[in-house]
Amino acid sequence: MERRTVLASIGIGLTTAAAGCLSETDATADPGSESEPDSESEPESDARSLATQAESQPTTVESGATADRRIGDETLADSGLRKPVQVALTNRASETHTPALVIERNGTTVLEESFELGADAAVHVLLSDLDEFTVRATLPDAEQAETVTVGRDQFDCNATTATVAVRDDGTLESSVVSTLMACRGVVTTTVERDETNSTTVGAVPGASERESADAQHGVVVHNPTAQTWTTRILLEESSDPTFDGVYTLEPGATAEIELAESGEYSLDVTVLETDATDHERIGATYFDCNTSTTQAELDAAGTVDLTTISTRMACPDDEFSE
């Protein structure tokens, strides 16, 4: 079965909340954390056990102040159409609290720190790379724990903040807040086993059937392996980002991107699990009466190879002149 998405317009969605164009979703609370392998504490003491590791020398953040942290190499600032996600740990109580914050990236701990937060103090952590993150905050004295998951789909053109807050009663609450712009050229999806997901980039509203059928170029990323891989497909036209797709490809799955407008494109395909990348330039000469495709094939090692192929028919000189 083939699913098709046409990216041809920009829209902006607004919520009716008093805060403006924001949507807020409560995150699921987790009553406790997993015990460390050498811990002898009972399950009900797990939250206290996790926080104690980071609590020996808590970082002091004065009332009303903010401490900043960053995770990653700021790769989202270098290319593409996606923005980093911010994590906020805040103290909304009138007295000082000492929560512990643990952030994992694909199961690996990348931040583990406790903070002595005065009233209205906060910690802001910038997640600057596209990945899967788990954010966990604990209050050892109250045996409280709260967990928020940040998925790849939350890295888009919107400003997104995942917050864990200490309330006045000493308990924790969490939320995820994001603006609601329609992100043209941003796709994040899973393509199921042996299926194909097709997207058209640069479709012109009202184009004739001939214009829609001819002078196009296809990009095809195929996973023939028995393993699921996640790929990021970046397209730039004249150095301007025009498409940023993240496709989780199950075995036998295919992602197809159809370029409907002639131009000079730069294509990068990256396998996120291995950081393997290949690059290809797609010139305007490919947009003629011939059928042309840039194919990306994944292998069992998580590497990718790009190849461009085209038919070689002679095209009338003026048929595809600009």
UniProtKB/TrEMBL annotation:
Q: Where is the composition biased (Polar residues)?
A: 50-63
- Bias-annotated ranges (Acidic residues): 33-44
Give the region (Disordered) as residue ranges.
18-79
Q: Which domain of life is it from?
A: Archaea
For this entry, the protein name equals Uncharacterized protein
Q: Which species is this UniProt entry from?
A: Natrialba aegyptia DSM 13077
